[in-house]
Design goal:
InterPro entries: DUF1249. This is DUF1249 domain-containing protein. The chain is α+β, with helices and mostly antiparallel strands. Helix content is 31%, strand content 25%. The chain is built from 3 helices and 6 strands; from the N terminus they run αβββββααβ.
């Protein structure tokens, strides 16, 4: 009987950056199924499913290969007046990636990791933001949000976003 020995050097390892790119791809697939962002007009869109948590999707810019968005609930943080939680998103249509560029969940990114974080800390922060985004998108899908419930767009100025 022959035995097969597998050593750790033969098993490919995914580094943190590769893992992050995988998160971007998974989030793109989720977001594409939910909202089909390339077809959305610039402006403010709303989704209401009757649970008291109305969703707001602001399409900030539409470009040939990217779309800039803000995803939030239509409720402000009582201290700052900012929508909370909210995530600024960039969709890369050609690469099929969705990146949460920054999130506001009670605190700004500068307050969390500082102005000049080391690269490893920055990658870790991006992983946490995009993991949060993936879970939020799953939650929204489970609640029934999607293109069928999306109404809009209402024209808004960039300053209002």
């Amino acid at each position: 009987m022959t035995s097969l020995t597998v050593t750790a050097e033969h098993i490919p390892r995914l580094n943190r950056f590769g893992w992050l790119m995988g998160l971007y791809a998974e989030n793109h697939a989720r977001f594409q199924r939910l909202f089909s962002p390339a077809s959305l007009a610039v402006g403010r869109h709303h989704s209401r499913v009757g649970d008291g948590l109305d969703l707001r999707l602001d399409v900030i810019e539409q470009h040939r290969y990217t779309t800039e968005l803000r995803l939030t609930y239509a409720m402000p943080d009582p201290l700052t007046g900012e929508p909370d939680p909210s995530a600024y998103l960039r969709v890369y249509h050609d690469a099929r990636q969705l990146e949460a560029t920054h999130c506001y969940i009670g605190r700004r990114w500068q307050d969390v990791i500082g102005l000049y974080p080391p690269p490893a800390e920055l990658i870790g922060h991006r992983m946490r933001m995009n993991t949060f985004l993936g879970k939020w998108l799953e939650y929204l899908a489970g609640r029934g949000h999607g293109v069928a419930t999306l109404k809009g767009p209402q024209a808004v100025s960039k300053e209002a976003i």
